[in-house]
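Late entry, evening session. Most of the bench is empty. Finally got around to the prediction I had been postponing all week. Sequence below, unchanged from the version circulated by S.P.
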Amino acid sequence: MAVRVGMGFDVHAVSDDPGRRLVLGGVEFPGSRGLVGHSDADVVAHAVADALLGAAGVGDLGDHFPDSDPAWVDANSLGLLEQVVEKIVLAGWRPANVDCTVVLEDPHLSPHRSDMQERLSAVVGAPVSVKATTAEGLGFIGRGEGVACWAVALVEA
């Protein structure tokens, strides 16, 4: 059996638009400020997608869903992730697992973590773990101006 590892990263700024929803790992966080982005700006789904694409060696999220294409405006990132899984399966790979770490000051992910993991795992077709940490008040994330996520994916053939 062949295995490959890929790493994904995504970061988005917090939006000043009061109507912008915050979506992380496919879960909406009511009452929290959303993120600036061409799609729904789900940094967790984007990092997971890039990790899977990298592991399969089939490009990155921008190659497949460019932000210059109006078709992806406000796109549901779990839908994009579903298409990514289809692409890597067509390339001869299947996800084995994904691990991701979200870096943000607010909101707290712990009340939503299991829901995020369930939604992501259902789309990926393999276990997805979600962890959270803060930037300890440092930099733009520490000031609450953005959210970042790193993800590592293992795929097998």
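Two things to note before I forget:
The CA atoms of residues 8 and 51 lie 4 Å apart.
The first helix runs from residue 43 to 56.
Will write this up properly tomorrow.
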